[in-house]
Each structure stands twice: as C-alpha cells, then as structure tokens.
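Inverse folding, one chain.
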C-alpha cells in the first residue's frame, strides 16, 4: 500500500511539475507567437505518461517514453522533420562529413540480397578482394534475405577496428566465399569524373557533402589537364538525394557568372529569409582559399547538359534549377523529386538534435520546386525501351503530410499529372515486365542511354525523347522556396548554412525514392 501511495505521489509530483513547466512554456509561447500553449492538452500528456507508468503491462523506461513523444511530435509535421537520437545524429554527421566506419563498398539491392556495385579503392573491402558484381548473402553468418537495404547496411557498419564476416556469392565460383573484414573509417568520394570520349567530359555528384566543392574542383582541373579542348561537359545528378546547401551553391557557382544569385529561401524566421550568391562566403565559409579560384576559364562557357531523374532531390534541384534559369545548361532526363524545403539542425544535447523544416527555397527566377520538381528541357527515359520502374518512384508529392506549395497549396494539377504518368505506365504491363528484369543502369558507362543522348545533343545528332509528357514545371502555377540547410550553430555538423546576412531580401514569389540509389557502407 505504501509503495502504491509513493508511486502515485511521484506521478502527482510529475504532473505538478509538468503544469509548472507548461506555464513557463505558455509565457514563452505568448512572447514568440502571441498565443498561449494549450494547458489542457499538456495536462493530458502528463496524465497519459502517468497511466503508462502505472498501468502498462511492463515497465517502460522514462527516457524512451519522452524520446518517442518528441519524435512523434516532430515527425507529425512533414516527411523531412525528424528527431535525431544519439545514433541517428551520429549517422547524419558522418553522411554530411563524407565519412563513416564500415568496410567500404557501394551497394544496391537485388533479389533480396545486396549486390556490390563497386568496392571503394584502398578500403578494407577492396583490400580483402571483394569485387564489383559480388552478391552479399550473409552478414556475420546470418542470412540477409528479407532485410531492407538500410538494415543490411547498418549491420556492416560498426565501431572502428571491429570485425564483420561477409559471405559472398560470386559468378564462376562453386562455393560461397567468406571474408572476415576489419572495419575502418571510410571516406566517401561524392564526385566522379572522366573523359567519356575525346572532347566530352562526365562529372557525377552522388551526394552533396562538405568536401564536394573541393573534390569537384580537383576532378575538373584534372579533366582539363587530360583534355584541354573539352567541347561538352555532362553534370550527372541522377539519384543524387541532395545534402548540404553550400555544396549546391559551390557547384552552381563553378559554371555561372561571378556573384550570381543561386537560390533564395523564405520562412517564418527572419534568418530564413535569405539570398545565396555564388561567392566563397556562401559555399566555402571556413576555407582560407577559394576552392573554385583556379578552375579553367573555359568552364564558364563550355556547353553543358545536366542529367536528372526522379531520384534527384533537394540540393540537386537547386543546382539544376539555377543552371536552367540562367540558360547555362540543357537539363535532360526525367522530372525530379520535388523536395523544395530547407531543413535546419537544432542541437538539443551533445548527442541529439531536431531536424526541422524552416523554409522553402526558390530558384533565381523565384520558381517553386516544392512538390513539383524540375522539369527537364529534354525529356529522355532511362533506357531506349522506356523509363521503366524509374517512373514509378515515390516523389515528394506522394509523401503523406508533405509541405505544400505556398502559392498553390493544393497543387492538384501537378498531382494529377504525375498520377496520370503512373497510370499510363501501370497499364503497360510489357514495359513493367521488361523493367523488372532489366539490370540497373551503371551511370557513366557505354550502356548509359541518357549519357549517350547527352553526347548526341552536343554533337547535334538526334536525341530520342520520352513519349510521356511531364507534369507542370516548377513555377507554372505559383512561386515558393527550399533544401537541406543544416544551420550548425549551436552544433556545427552539416556546414550547410553560412551565417551571412542576406544582401537582397527574397521576393516571396526538399520519404526517399522507392527505388534506392547505391549506398556506401
């Protein structure tokens, strides 16, 4: 009896404390928004917490309950706002910094198993002898079929110097191969580049990270050293899910006139009303030397094609939108994802943070991308036989609770157009069957159909266009703004938001794709 009274007393104390805190919050809310917090609902929250502690079938950790409550509150806002616990916060910092602890392979999902797209040079997997095309069937002896790609990737990651066993099925090998690999810190190269044929260069950005601008500058300089007379450059942003805004600004600035407006943002906070220019303080705020300063002069004038698809999102759309607005490049491929929102990281503790949508972004001509995407100048399917499953990818407009367009909240026209595209493809069973059997396209190879069409465009040869009409272009119905702009003050993780006051006040006028792009781990 005494224990029960004590328990109830503690809960009562918690409720009193909750009400006291709520009164403080109410005062803050009135100061910030002009309206008080709903005390009745806060009392209900305290009551539910107490009921779970006393009546639930088994004991639940207080921290877990509160953490889940915060997570639910934030995730209810939109698909991109989320609470980052210790593990998720660490993973985000690793992604933005372009490094993590793992074995060093780029992978994709195939028939329930993991297909190695490529081992990263000089990593544990590369040194162990894992090859492109290998099929990973077991991790630490446990069959992975039925797991998601993310689940399997997490199993291959771990603490530095820890070991993991990877079972491989390899073509032309009679028995499975088992590799015991020691995990190490892996540094991801987000930029690839090569001369695809004399006079024509290909630069691929797989994700916008802190080192991306530096890496791109080095790769492009090397390309011009190899071939000083480049006649056409393909910037490949297909399946690039985005990343930090400074990376997008820097990549755009490399090809545009000095001091060009790259993107502007608008939100509730004064600090979210910004205009970003192609200047070092915006794309390399911590660098002592401008990483773009020594790029070849010809880069500002070389003919360009930017390749995009439904997996091109967020920061990718900033770049495509800017180059399209200035008519600096021909955008080719399929309609992009349509993530036009800014996410800012707000640190809560040393190990946790909230990623919160704080603004929308706009292209230089104040076009809105949110829930609409960038429509290519030349619509070209992924293969000669059609766009296959790529056209069935989930886009921003398909996500529940997605942020609407501030000038056209319903955006019915865009939704109906994308739905019509899906209906058309779903009716074509032959094309779907072909798409499911087809091997994933390896970007930058001779089998890359869209890249071949880009080269044809440079040469003035016919380009095979898609038979499916795109949805309405960004800005056709209204205007809006946004992307992942981690503001790392107080916590400086994704250097995505230069602390610079806007010189020009912008005129109001980014669930991942269903088909996953290769993942490194």
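Residues assigned per position:
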């Amino acid at each position: 009896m005494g224990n029960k009274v004590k328990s109830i007393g503690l809960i009562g104390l918690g409720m009193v404390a909750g009400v006291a805190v709520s009164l403080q919050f109410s005062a803050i809310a009135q100061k910030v928004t002009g309206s008080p917090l709903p005390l009745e609902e806060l009392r209900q929250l305290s009551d539910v917490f107490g009921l779970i502690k006393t009546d639930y079938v088994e004991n639940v950790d207080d921290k877990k309950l509160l953490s889940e409550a915060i997570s639910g509150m934030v995730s209810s806002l939109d698909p991109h706002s989320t609470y980052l616990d210790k593990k998720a916060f660490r993973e985000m910092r690793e992604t933005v910094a372009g490094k993590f602890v793992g074995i060093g392979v780029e992978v994709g999902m195939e028939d329930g198993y993991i297909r190695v797209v490529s081992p990263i040079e000089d990593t544990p997997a590369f040194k162990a002898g894992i090859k492109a095309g290998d099929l990973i069937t077991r991790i630490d002896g446990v069959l992975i079929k039925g797991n998601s790609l993310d689940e399997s990737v997490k199993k291959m990651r771990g603490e530095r110097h820890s070991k993991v066993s990877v079972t491989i099925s390899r073509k032309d090998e009679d028995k499975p191969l088992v590799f015991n690999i020691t995990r190490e810190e892996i540094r991801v190269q987000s930029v690839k580049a090569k001369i695809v044929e004399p006079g024509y260069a290909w630069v691929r950005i797989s994700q916008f990270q802190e080192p991306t601008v530096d890496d791109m500058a080095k790769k492009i300089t090397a390309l011009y050293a190899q071939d000083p007379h480049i006649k056409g450059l393909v910037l490949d942003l297909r399946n690039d899910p985005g990343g930090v805004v400074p990376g997008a600004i820097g990549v755009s600035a490399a090809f545009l006139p000095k001091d060009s407006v790259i993107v502007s943002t608008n939100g509730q906070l004064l600090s979210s009303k910004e205009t970003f220019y192609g200047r070092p303080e915006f794309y390399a705020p911590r660098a002592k030397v401008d990483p773009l300063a020594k790029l070849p002069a010809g880069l500002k004038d070389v003919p360009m094609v930017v390749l995009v698809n439904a997996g091109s999102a967020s920061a990718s759309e900033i770049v495509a939108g800017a180059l399209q607005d200035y008519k600096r490049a021909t955008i080719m491929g399929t309609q992009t994802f349509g993530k036009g929102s800014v996410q800012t990281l707000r640190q809560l503790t040393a190990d946790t943070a909230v990623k919160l949508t704080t603004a929308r972004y706009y292209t230089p001509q104040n076009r809105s991308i949110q829930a609409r995407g960038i429509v290519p100048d030349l619509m070209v399917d992924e293969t000669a036989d059609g766009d296959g499953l790529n056209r069935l990818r989930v886009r921003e407009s398909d996500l529940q609770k997605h942020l609407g367009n501030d000038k056209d909240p319903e955006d019915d026209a865009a939704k109906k157009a994308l739905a019509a595209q899906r209906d058309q493809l779903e009716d074509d069973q032959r094309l779907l069957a072909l798409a499911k059997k087809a091997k994933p396209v390896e970007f930058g190879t001779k089998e890359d159909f869209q890249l071949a069409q880009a080269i044809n465009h440079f040469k003035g040869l016919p380009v095979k266009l898609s038979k499916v009409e795109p949805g309405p272009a960004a800005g056709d119905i209204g205007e809006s703004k946004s992307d992942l702009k981690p503001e790392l003050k107080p916590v400086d993780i994704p250097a995505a938001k230069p602390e610079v006051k806007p010189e020009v006040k912008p005129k109001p006028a980014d669930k991942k794709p269903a088909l996953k792009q290769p993942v490194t781990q």
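Residues 1-31, 475-521 have pLDDT under 50 and may be disordered. The first strand starts at residue 82 and ends at 84.
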